[in-house]
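Notes to self after the call with IL:
- keep both proteins in one doc
- input above output, always
- annotate only the second one for now

Protein 1:
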Amino acid sequence: MRTAFALLGAALVITPAAAAPVTMQIHLTGAEEVPGPGDADGKGTASVTLDAAKPEVCYTLDVSGIDTATMAHIHKGAKGVAGPPVVTLDAPAEGASKGCAKADADVVAALLAKPADYYVNVHNASHPKGALRGQLGR
C-alpha cells in the first residue's frame, strides 16, 4: 500500500501543470486583405484568448472606418493566403463585439501551435470577401 501511495505521489509531482491561457493582440487593416482590396480607410484590433483546456476562442473586436460589419471569422491561411473559416465570431456591427465562440479542440490546439497560419477577418456588404484582416501571432 505504501508503494502505491509513493508512486501516486511521484506521478502527481512530475505531471506538468496545465498551460496558461494565451492572449494575442492583432492589428486589422484593409491592406492585409487577400484577395484585396480590403477597405483602405478601415482599421481595427482583435484580441484572441485561447486555453488548451477549453473548446472555445474568446475574443474582442473593435473596428472603425468601415461600413457595417456583417460577419467575422478566424480563417486558416498564412500571411498573403486566403483560406477557409475555422471559427465564427460575432460581427462588430456597432463597431465592437466580444464573446467566446465554440471551437473544436483540434482547432484550438492548431491555433496555439501555429498562430501565424491563421487570421482574423471582418466582412461587410461592400467588401464581402473581407474589409479588414490581421494575422494571429504571439
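Protein 2 (the one to annotate):
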Amino acid sequence: MSNIVEVNDSNFDAAVGRNDKPVLVDFWAPWCGPCKTVGPMLEEIADELGDDLVVAKVNVDDSPETAARMGIRSIPTLALFREGGVVARQTGAGSLGQLRAFVKGNL
C-alpha cells in the first residue's frame, strides 16, 4: 500500500499547509515521462521517511489552480513544505541518491 497522499485543489491547504510534518509535494502529470521515473523513487522515500515526512502528489492537469498558485512551470517539480511554506524546490528527475540528498538536506 502506498504511503503517498493524493492532493488536489480542494484539499491542498489542509493536507500540505496545515500539516504538522514536513511535506514533500510532487507536481506531476500522467503524460510526463520523467514524472513516471520519479514515482517509484518517491515510494521508496515515503517508506524510508514516513515517520518524519509526508509525501504527496499533485496532478497539475487535475489541479491547475494549485499549480498556478505555486508557480509550477515545469514538471516534475518537487517542493518541500514546512509550516505551510516552501523551504526547497527541485525541478526535473534525478537519481534516487539525489532525491534522498535533496530531502534529507532540507528536512
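Annotation: The mean pLDDT is 93. Residues 32 and 84 are 27 Å apart (CA to CA).
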